[in-house]
Amino acid sequence: MEITLIESRFCTVKEAEARRPKGIGLFNTNNSVNEYNNKILNAYVDRIPSTAKDKYIGCTSKEQEIFVRQKFHKMSFIDTNGLPN
């Protein structure tokens, strides 16, 4: 019964865009989420770019900071709690 209810909500991408052009979507892969987010973000004309500056606290040397930075960039999206590298 639950599966029937969920499946009754399925629609095509075109139908979803018509129903909720800027709404919240449920996707089955992280790649699909990233594609959707990038599409929405790129649609804004008056966007302002923002670049973060990483700050590594607790490193006692430049070599340690380089090691930590390299280790961080190899981590998965899940291991960083959703933060992109």
Automatic annotation (TrEMBL):
<keyword id="KW-0547">Nucleotide-binding</keyword>
<protein>
    <submittedName>
        <fullName>ATP-dependent DNA helicase</fullName>
    </submittedName>
</protein>
<keyword id="KW-0378">Hydrolase</keyword>
<keyword id="KW-0347">Helicase</keyword>
<dbReference type="GO" id="GO:0004386">
    <property type="term" value="F:helicase activity"/>
</dbReference>
<keyword id="KW-0067">ATP-binding</keyword>
